[in-house]
């Protein structure tokens, strides 16, 4: 299974040669459709849209919405950020379909957390793709789509937590203080993660102060460390030979930690400004690694579900599974309200600056 995940790296990362032909697709569109303008340099867009060490490949602001939709087939510095998740989503669904088809799973309450994990990943991919595709339209659009992106991240965090709790956790860990308050804690920290990211985005302007990073990193890090705790416990206390799924969990942690590095640090573009504007800059690598993280999680969850599905309801009880899964849409709606409130607050702040 680990070979499958590693092979997906070449599938998710579309080759440079393929993207080199994308502008021709835009040129072949019907003349009645609005055509995206050529990309411009960093000096030709407001500072809000500029990224460190990325000097070219920016889409001009205030174009027609259709232009940004059609820029899906244009070569610019957000292309791989969009396509990396657009391609990961069908891969995730194909693996889902393959597992259910080959092993003959049937839908019941024990598989519900696994279904919600898939849904959470797809929501995260969708929000991220929309954010990177449309954020260049205007300052208002930039803030709104990234607020929604933070909603997707929080929902995905909780979807992962459901899978870790019901399929990966060990009895000893569930009896600990972490296990007893795990679902409550991950839901709360997911909400705080969304709130912290929205607050940091709406309150602070470039040049960004240290407080912005603190608002983003602390709640998100706490959410991750709590969410991954049942996996770490199992990796440290169970033989990997006895449970092959632990190899996939080790991979998911490795991929995620590497993705966090590329998310936090502008590597490799900081060493070669302007050389990785279109392909290969740090945020694109972050997206690819995050997709591999999700695929690794899916493989691990399916192995664990196949091994324990007859006992899941007996171990946790139907009511706990139902309540945990009902909390999923509650968290999603709560995070959505945070995003909408942040957008209104941001609009008021912008109006205040203008006045």
UniProtKB/TrEMBL annotation:
Keywords: Membrane, Metal-binding, Transmembrane, Transmembrane helix, Zinc. One of its GO terms (cellular component) is plasma membrane. Pfam families: HlyIII. It is a multi-pass membrane protein. GO terms for molecular function: metal ion binding; nuclear steroid receptor activity; steroid binding. Zn(2+) binds at residues 132, 283, 287. It is found in: Membrane. The chain crosses the membrane at residues 80-97, 109-131, 143-166, 178-200, 221-240, 252-272, 321-340. InterPro entries: AdipoR/HlyIII-related. This is Progestin and adipoQ receptor family member VIII. It comes from Periophthalmus magnuspinnatus.
């Amino acid at each position: 299974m680990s070979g499958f995940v590693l092979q997906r790296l070449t599938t998710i990362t579309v080759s440079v040669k393929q993207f080199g032909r994308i502008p021709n697709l835009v040129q072949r569109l019907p003349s009645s459709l609005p055509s995206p303008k050529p990309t411009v340099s960093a000096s030709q867009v407001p500072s809000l849209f500029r990224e460190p060490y990325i000097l070219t490949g920016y889409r001009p602001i205030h174009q027609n919405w259709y232009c940004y939709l059609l820029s899906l087939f244009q070569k610019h510095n957000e292309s791989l950020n969009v396509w990396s998740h657009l391609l990961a989503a069908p891969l995730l669904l194909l693996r889902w379909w393959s597992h259910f088809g080959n092993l003959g799973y049937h839908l019941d309450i024990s598989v519900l957390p696994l279904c919600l994990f898939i849904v959470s990943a797809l929501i995260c991919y969708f929000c991220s793709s929309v954010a990177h595709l449309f954020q260049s339209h205007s300052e208002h659009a930039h803030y709104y789509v990234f607020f929604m992106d933070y909603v997707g991240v929080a929902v995905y965090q909780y979807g992962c937590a459901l899978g870790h709790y019901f399929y990966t956790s060990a009895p000893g860990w569930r009896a600990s203080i972490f296990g007893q308050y795990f679902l409550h804690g991950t839901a709360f920290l997911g909400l705080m993660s969304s709130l912290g990211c929205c607050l940091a985005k709406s309150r602070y302007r470039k040049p960004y102060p240290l407080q912005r990073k603190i608002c983003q990193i602390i709640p998100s890090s706490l959410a991750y460390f709590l969410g991954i705790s049942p996996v770490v416990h199992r990796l440290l206390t169970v033989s990997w030979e006895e449970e092959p799924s632990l190899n996939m969990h080790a991979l998911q942690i490795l991929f995620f930690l590497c993705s966090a590095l590329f998310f936090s640090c502008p590597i490799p573009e900081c060493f070669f400004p302007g050389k990785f504007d279109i392909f290969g800059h740090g945020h694109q690598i972050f997206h690819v690694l995050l997709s591999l993280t999700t695929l690794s999680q899916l493989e691990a969850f399916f192995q664990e579900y196949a091994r324990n599905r007859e006992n899941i309801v007996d171990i946790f009880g139907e009511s706990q599974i139902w309540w945990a899964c009902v909390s999923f849409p509650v968290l999603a709606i709560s995070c959505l309200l945070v995003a909408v409130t942040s957008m209104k607050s941001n609009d008021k702040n912008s109006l205040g600056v203008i006045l």
